[in-house]
Design a protein that fits this description.
Radius of gyration: 44 Å
Structural class: alpha+beta
Distance between the termini: 118 Å
Largest sheet: 8 strands, mixed, barrel
Shape: elongated
Helix content: 40-55%
Strand order of the largest sheet: 23-24-26-27-28-29-30-31
Number of helices: 30
Length: 926
């Protein structure tokens, strides 16, 4: 096998490894892209199902409110229809709202067409007529329009539970699906199907096949929905493979719908397929170039050179000692062999002419000299550095092979006797010298004359960095070593970059930001000023939690890019870590300059982001400090910018604040309060008071709520609204909450057996996975039965991670503990929480109680809450009851319990025991 063939086979084997790596990378990327896209399909299905649940729940609330409207009770059909028309104008999601009399006849019609309808045969009318006070839903297709609507009916009954009329709202499913799918990327297909497999809506509208009104009950597609979620690949009749995910709405009256989202699998794997094609193209081009190079090397660099050597050997074998291998000589072993053969031929020729004149001693001397020269040549040619030695006349004495290779020079030029000027000119001709040759020449000679050891780095024309060290030698000459330090310099640059730049966004990091700010403050001119902006991305954690860290990282990179685009050439932006960025704005003439920059930042970052197929929106809280008025010291200025940012977050986020001295004072006050709170916890300076909960039916005390009180030794009483947030922020709420729970259970164990104790739970406590164990430990230590302990939580506990909260609530319920939803009606989605979480009690917030007895007050709202709670088998408690009129109205509305100053304020433990004892004596005497 020839050398050329062997080299080609070696190249072929080497090319296989990159091909395998490309295939492995394609397999990995393809799987990751498909998994991410499937999760996106599932999230889209769940989002649409949740939106439909919200529409249904909103309709239920609308029905409850309309049931109490006086206009619907009016016998004037025109006035009643006009009122419903006004309601429909405010709620365009419905195609119509009407009322049906108990005999199935149309009463009032929001469309005011004067039509006469007999609706006795409608299934939703028959179910609503037989229902107590819950809604009935039924998906149908309009008999005239053919469009899918969701009929939502609600029976309205009088005080004797006799049916007055049935409220009916028709939710436009076609409009709803259009709203939900208009912002989805191209290629998404969404179906809304009822539980029997009938297609209610399909987006985009099909060209044929399973359109609205058709049934997919027997199809594999419907089995994806019937399996209650998950994802599955299906092949449609055209042979295309699509990936489907499904989610179902909440069941109302035994009716629920399925949302199915699909996308072509070819679209999911388009990106990795494209990358595979690009990688294979590049690999193929490189392989062809490598094959061509190896072929050329084998042809020119090996076979031709060996042929030259063979020709000379044949002449030598024939006795022609004048035979030589003519130049040029290739680098490496073949060039060395040619020189050795030429030297051997020359030596043989000299020996033949001079053998009679030379004696044995001269032959030995020559042999020894050649050996020493060979050793020196070998040592020089194996150095990693290039080496040149010049004599006192600037002539080259020694030059090793590494120097020749380093600069791509010719041995015909670079040889003993070559001057420094000639060497510089040859390097310029070879393209390995950059700069002014005369200056370089003069500098070298000047250093030699001064007998200095010099060291410097020279850049080459091809971008390398060469470190040169010159040392003078005896006789006026000098020795120079040349070392290629390109990789070392690049490595040092990379290390320096990594130390000062953020790896994710490639923005300067905190360390470089502080250096830049320190330099800017030192160079601040008289009368000049600069601004420091601290930027915190709002709600960024929810992006990581819901979509994963890769999407969060992509969002941070996009935000960083937009921040760069907002800055002037003299400004400076850095990422401090997490979701925090900082900007130094130079040359600030007036605060309006900084305000304009903030406006540009908000305009830029509030534009939507497309992160791996997810359309995201974000905002920021910005704190601003100006130098020198807000601080000329670096740390002081940064602290003030940080305080201003937290003030912006406290103002509701999505805004900016300039630093004010009051912020510093407020922060110091909070830190002082934290210190005093820590001391109070350590020495037992807090106590519990208890406010009774009274049964409105018999005015008996059914329980007491434990309320934390702090009497500061110098400030006096401090409101829990002031010190509890500090405890939550610093983590003190964990030991404080454990003490409250243990103390309240121990105190309640001394009360009558029918009296429960209610303890408020902080969201910080509830997020602890060991919270249920701590509750069990408090019950065991006090001996209090679990059913006498009520834990009061607010919606803040549930908003962040409702799945984890649901699991924790079930753990607590398994202990036998009762759960109450506090401050009901003041949050974001209380009705959905009532349906999803196992509450025992609803506490109606005092803001709905203060005007409940007034003519235009909140009685209808309280009544609606009581009705909902009754339907869910929950107890209702009215908070903040202060007047007899309020108590009378609450009794009339059906509220179960009350709490407030009308009966008793919160009392210390000793007084609450006396109150319970006196009530027991009164009950015994009666």
């Amino acid at each position: 096998m020839s050398i050329r063939v062997r080299l080609l086979l070696l190249v072929l084997g080497t090319a296989l490894l990159p091909a395998i790596l490309v295939g492995w990378r394609y397999y990995q990327d393809r799987g990751k892209d498909i998994d991410a896209a499937i999760r996106g399909l599932a999230a889209t299905a769940r989002s649409i199902a949740t939106s439909l649940d919200t529409r249904i729940q909103g309709t239920s609330q609308l029905h409850v409110g309309l049931a109490r409207a006086r206009d619907l009770a009016s016998p004037d059909k025109a006035a009643c229809s006009g009122f419903l028309s006004e309601v429909l104008a405010k709620h365009p999601q419905y195609t119509g709202i009407l009322t049906i009399d108990p005999n199935g006849g149309l009463l009032c019609d929001s469309l005011r067409t004067g039509r006469v309808l007999d609706l006795r045969d409608r299934n939703y009318f028959r179910q609503a007529s037989n229902a107590a006070d819950s809604i009935v839903i039924e998906p149908v297709f309009g008999r005239l329009t053919g469009s899918a609507v969701l009929q939502i009916a609600y029976p309205v009954r009088d005080a004797s539970q006799r049916l007055q009329f049935v409220l009916l709202a028709s939710l436009d499913l076609t409009r709803f699906m259009k709203e939900q799918t208009e912002n989805l990327p191209r290629g998404f297909e969404v179906l809304l199907v009822d539980r029997k497999g009938a297609v209610l809506s399909r987006s985009p509208a099909p060209l044929g096949g399973d359109g609205p009104g058709t049934s997919i009950a027997d199809s594999a597609l419907f089995r994806v929905a019937a399996d209650r979620g998950g994802s599955k690949e299906l092949v449609n009749p055209s042979g295309e493979t699509r990936v489907w995910s499904a989610a179902e709405t909440l069941a109302v009256g035994g009716v629920n719908l399925h949302v199915m989202v699909g996308r072509s699998k070819s679209e999911l794997v388009a990106a990795p397929n494209r990358r595979l094609a690009e990688d294979m193209t590049i690999l193929g081009v490189l392989s062809l170039l490598l094959f061509a190079g190896v072929w050329l090397l084998a042809e020119v660099g090996i076979r031709v050179q060996i042929s030259r050597i063979a020709t000379m050997a044949q002449r030598l074998g024939a006795g022609d000692l004048s035979a030589r291998v003519p130049p040029p000589y290739p680098r490496g072993e073949l060039g060395s062999l040619m020189r050795v053969l030429n030297g051997t031929a020359a030596s043989l020729e000299r020996q033949r002419h001079d053998i009679e004149d030379l004696n044995e001693k001269l032959l030995q001397s020559q042999s020894l000299g050649m050996l020493e020269k060979q050793r020196l040549d070998i040592a020089l040619d194996h150095m990693t550095q290039g080496l040149v030695l010049f004599d006192g006349l600037e002539r080259l004495v020694i030059c090793n092979q590494r120097y020749i290779e380093m600069y791509g020079l010719s041995r015909d030029v670079v040889k003993p006797g070559c001057t420094l000027r000639e060497l510089i000119a040859h390097r310029k001709q070879a393209g390995s010298f950059k700069g002014d040759g005369e200056v370089y020449y003069a500098t070298i000679l000047d250093d030699v004359l001064q007998k200095k050891v010099t060291q410097f780095v020279l850049p080459t024309a091809d971008g390398r960095s060469i470190q040169v060290v010159n040392r003078t030698v005896a006789g006026g000459g000098w020795l120079a070593t040349h070392e290629d330090i390109t990789e070392r310099a690049r490595f040092d640059e990379r290390i320096a970059h990594m130390a000062h730049y953020d790896a994710l966004t490639d923005l300067p990091n905190r360390a470089l930001f502080r250096q830049q700010l320190a330099a800017a403050l030192d160079g601040l001119a008289e009368g000049g000023q600069l601004a420091v902006l601290y930027i915190d991305i709002d709600e960024f954690k929810s992006v990581n939690d819901l979509l994963g860290h890769p999407i969060g990282d992509e969002l941070l990179r996009a935000v960083a890019g937009r921040l760069r685009g907002c800055l002037a050439a003299t400004d400076f932006v850095a990422r401090l870590g997490g979701d925090e960025f900082a900007i130094i704005q130079m040359a600030v003439e007036r605060p309006a300059d900084t305000t304009h920059l903030v406006e540009r930042i908000y305009t830029a970052i509030r534009e939507p982001y497309d992160c791996a197929g997810h359309l995201l929106a974000t905002d920021a809280s910005i704190g601003i400090a100006l130098a020198p008025q807000d601080g000329a010291d670096l740390n002081e200025l940064l602290k003030h910018a940080d305080l201003a940012m937290y003030a912006a977050k406290a103002d509701g986020r999505r805004t900016s604040r300039f630093f004010e001295p009051a912020m510093d004072a407020r922060m110091k006050a909070l830190r002082l309060l934290e210190r005093d709170l820590r001391q109070a916890i350590a020495v037992g300076g807090l106590e519990l008071h208890y406010q009774p909960l009274v049964d409105l039916a018999d005015n008996a005390i059914s329980g007491c709520e434990a309320l934390l009180r702090w009497h500061h030794p110098t400030r006096g009483p401090i409101s829990p609204a002031e010190f509890v947030p500090v405890a939550e922020e610093t983590g003190l709420i964990i030991p404080l909450g454990e003490w409250v729970l243990a103390a309240a259970c121990a105190e309640a164990a001394t009360w009558p057996d029918h009296v429960r104790v209610a303890v408020n739970v902080s969201p910080v406590q509830f997020r602890s996975q060991a919270f249920a164990l701590k509750v069990a430990a408090a019950l065991a230590a006090s001996g209090l039965p679990a059913h006498r302990l009520e834990l009061e939580i607010t919606e803040a506990v549930l908003i962040r991670d409702d799945e984890a909260a649901l699991a924790m609530l079930h753990q607590l319920r398994s202990l036998g503990v009762r759960i109450a939803l506090d401050d009901f009606g003041t949050g974001y989605s209380s009705l959905s929480y009532l349906q999803r979480f196992p509450f025992d009690k609803i506490k109606i917030d005092r803001c709905f109680i203060k005007d409940v007895a007034e003519a235009d007050g909140s009685a209808c709202i309280v009544q609606a809450v009581v009705n909902i709670a009754t339907a869910r088998h929950m107890t209702t408690v009215a908070e903040g009851v202060e007047t007899p009129a309020q108590r009378t109205m609450l009794r009339a509305l059906g509220c179960n319990e009350m709490q407030g100053y009308l009966f008793s304020p919160a009392l210390p433990a000793t007084q609450i025991r006396l109150l319970l004892a006196s009530r027991r004596r009164v009950a015994g005497a009666a």
